[in-house]
Write a structure and sequence with these properties.
By secondary structure, the protein is mostly helical. It has one domain (2-39). It contains three helices and no strands. The radius of gyration is 20 Å and the shape is rod-shaped. The termini are far apart.
């Protein structure tokens, strides 16, 4: 546990690692949203619109 806490402190103190962490978090959030929209069949459009094509 002590190694983990030291790792987190070093991560926060380093500007490059802190920036990389923020970028990674946003990337993971957007990837999760993209996968959700890709997998889900939710749509607010009425069914007849899709039947036209």
């Amino acid at each position: 546990m002590n190694r983990f806490i030291v790792f987190i402190k070093n991560w926060k103190n380093s500007e490059r690692l802190a920036f990389a962490g923020r970028v990674l978090v946003f990337y993971l959030i957007f990837m999760a949203l993209w996968i959700y929209f890709l997998i889900s069949k939710d749509s607010s459009a009425p069914v007849f619109i899709y039947e036209q094509f």
